[in-house]
Write a structure and sequence with these properties.
globular, 8-stranded parallel β-barrel, two-stranded antiparallel ribbon, Aldolase_TIM, oxidoreductase, FMN, 327 residues, 14% strand, nitronate monooxygenase activity, binds flavin mononucleotide, 2 domains, single chain, 13 helices, TIM Barrel, alpha/beta
């Protein structure tokens, strides 16, 4: 299949398809990101999954070996607790030293780090949960923005505006390459996003069942059984909303928020990242804060990431053909 989907995003990243595999805490490692690269999209190794710069650098080097010369990037997430500037700078040292050309930032403004990244020739994609934040990032000089709607796994922001609205507003308002994410998992939806005027899509949840995701197969088998109603929001009272797999942790946290709204210290023990990692390792997802979006409804089987992307691409092509009947 020839590249039929050239956009400002494929031009920026040098990819075949206008699809970005967003950072996935604990899970977006070299194996996954290199698989994305080989399949014709771009993925981002998630820096916060690595305890220090040296570990991140080893992962970057491993990804380069596996990516067969294709582009890839590193994600710097500055939430849930504001990541200290020194830690971010430590990651940036290794990103620059490792010759990485693309960075995805999220969680808070990337302003303080843009001069260093740009001086090193790195293109910065900033991910935001609202048009307001995306406009701000555009004004700061980022190279591309990604807006995620309320349906997304992870951090949908506090306003919880759906992706269809966000895309329609942003397509007309943003003047740099831009992506829409949140609830996207099919080729028809990719084409709908492009129709809204954005240049590509960000996907997280749909790719969680890929073979290259190291989480336990039991977890992936569970995801395949889930529907769009099986996620829950939590941490709204501390203005750090997270959409996650509905389990005992989302129940407990929501109960605590009803009685002790706004007090993160009582929630912290339940949402600790280590518990989530343990769930991925064991496959027992009955507890732990496990980011998950409504697009889990589209996860229908375990298979290589390249195969998932191939199926999305085939649907993009058939949708384009089907829409031509309106010509
Ligand atoms: C398990 C999981 C972990 C995530 N971790 C991060 C992260 O560490 N940093 C980040 O910027 N985004 C993170 N995200 C958000 C994704 O990069 C992406 O923006 C989002 O998944 C898109 O919406 P979707 O889940 O509906 O596909 C995560 C999402 C999931 C599902």
């Amino acid at each position: 299949m020839e590249a039929q989907f050239r956009t400002a995003i494929t031009d920026l990243f040098g990819t075949r398809l206008p699809i970005v595999a967003g950072g996935l805490h604990w899970l977006a490692d070299a194996n996954y990101v290199a698989a994305a690269a080989r399949a014709g999209i771009i993925g981002f190794i998630t820096a916060s999954s690595f305890e220090n710069g040296a570990r991140l650098r080893a992962e970057i080097d491993r990804c380069r070996d596996l990516a067969e010369g294709r582009p890839f990037g590193v994600n710097i997430s500055m939430l849930p607790k504001p990541t200290p500037d020194e830690k971010v700078n430590e990651y940036i040292d290794e990103i620059i030293g490792g010759g990485v050309r693309f960075v995805e930032t999220s969680g808070r403004s990337p302003e303080a780090f843009l001069p260093r990244l740009h001086a090193a020739g790195i293109k910065v994609l900033h991910k935001a949960p609202s048009l307001r934040h995306a406009k701000k990032a555009e004004s700061l000089g980022v190279d591309a923005v990604s807006i995620v709607g309320a349906e997304c796994g992870g951090h949908p922001g506090v306003d919880l505006i759906g992706s269809m609205i966000q895309g329609a507003l942003a397509g007309a308002a943003i003047n740099i390459p831009m992506l829409l994410g949140g609830g996207i998992g099919t080729g028809r939806q990719v084409m709908a996003a492009l129709a809204l005027g954005v240049d590509g899509v960000t996907i997280g949840t749909r790719f969680l069942v890929a073979d290259e995701i190291w989480a336990h197969d039991d977890y992936k088998e569970l995801l395949i059984t889930l529907k769009e109603t099986d996620t829950a929001l939590m941490m709204q009272s501390v203005r750090n909303t997270v959409r996650a797999l509905r389990n005992s942790t989302t129940e407990i946290v929501n109960d605590l928020e009803r009685t002790q709204a706004g007090d993160f210290s009582v929630l912290r023990p339940h949402v600790a990242g280590a518990l989530g990692r343990q769930a991925y390792l064991s496959g027992d997802a009955s507890s732990g804060a496990l980011s998950l979006g409504q697009a889990v409804a589209f996860a229908d089987r375990r298979e290589p990431l390249a195969r998932i992307i191939e199926r999305i691409e085939a649907e993009m092509i058939s949708t384009t053909n089907a829409l031509s009947r309106f010509h």
